[in-house]
Specification:
Blueprint: H1 2-19, E1 23-27, E2 34-39, E3 42-47, E4 59-64, E5 71-77, E6 80-87, E7 90-98, H2 106-123, E8 128-134, H3 158-170
Parallel strand pairs: 7-8
Antiparallel strand pairs: 1-4, 2-3, 3-4, 5-6, 6-7
Length: 193
């Protein structure tokens, strides 16, 4: 499996280079443990479940090597990552997260959002915060709202409500809803059992 992962990461870094992307976040990487490595032209920071567990979840942040000196530090928080960057004099913290899906038990979702809230509190208000990842939530649409924009899909689910509450309490916006998208980019396929 490790060889397949290496091959997939080579393919990803090659495509990112073609697209001239400086920073990218990946979810559901299923890589175990935490660490950093150089992959092609990128610094790869990753966090996943402990090595004694079945591979699941996990996140990665890939940053162009030219930006390596701007990464002040990073930390694995559960299977998620926080990265502190100073870019052009601006202090930025990027959080790379993978939230439990809506069909998970409330206890698991509560734990995730409590830890995310605690992490945001610890970051404080002196840094710009960018929350990246797969939140697994539908937030609906709102007009003239400080958190949710008018261009998201219309349905709302439990994780969406949790995310809105978290963003309100930390003065964050869910930027995806502030820009028009093609219909195909608004929806995720779901299988109902």
């Amino acid at each position: 499996m490790f060889k397949a992962f290496e091959e997939k990461m080579e393919e990803i870094t090659s495509e990112l280079g073609k697209l001239k992307m400086d920073v990218i976040e990946l979810t559901e990487t299923k890589q175990k443990g935490t660490g950093s490595e150089i992959l092609g032209g990128y610094v790869h920071l990753y966090s996943g479940v402990s090595k004694d567990r079945r591979a699941e979840r996990g996140v990665s942040i890939l940053t162009k090597k030219k930006l390596k000196k701007e990464i002040m530090n990073w930390e694995a928080v559960n299977e998620n990552i926080t990265v502190n960057i100073n870019h052009l004099g601006i202090k930025i913290t990027a959080l790379c997260v993978y939230a439990p899906s809506n069909d998970k038990v409330d206890f698991e979702k509560d734990q995730f959002y409590e830890k995310l809230n605690e992490t945001l509190i610890n970051i404080g208000t002196t840094r710009e915060i960018i929350l990246l990842g797969d939140i697994n939530g539908h937030t609906g649409t709102k007009v003239n709202n400080q958190v949710v924009g008018p261009y998201e899909e219309t349905r709302m689910k439990d994780n969406g409500e949790r995310l809105i509450d978290l963003c309100k309490s930390h003065n964050l916006r869910i930027m995806n809803g502030y820009f028009k998208h093609k219909m195909i980019h608004k929806y995720t396929w779901e299988q109902h059992t």
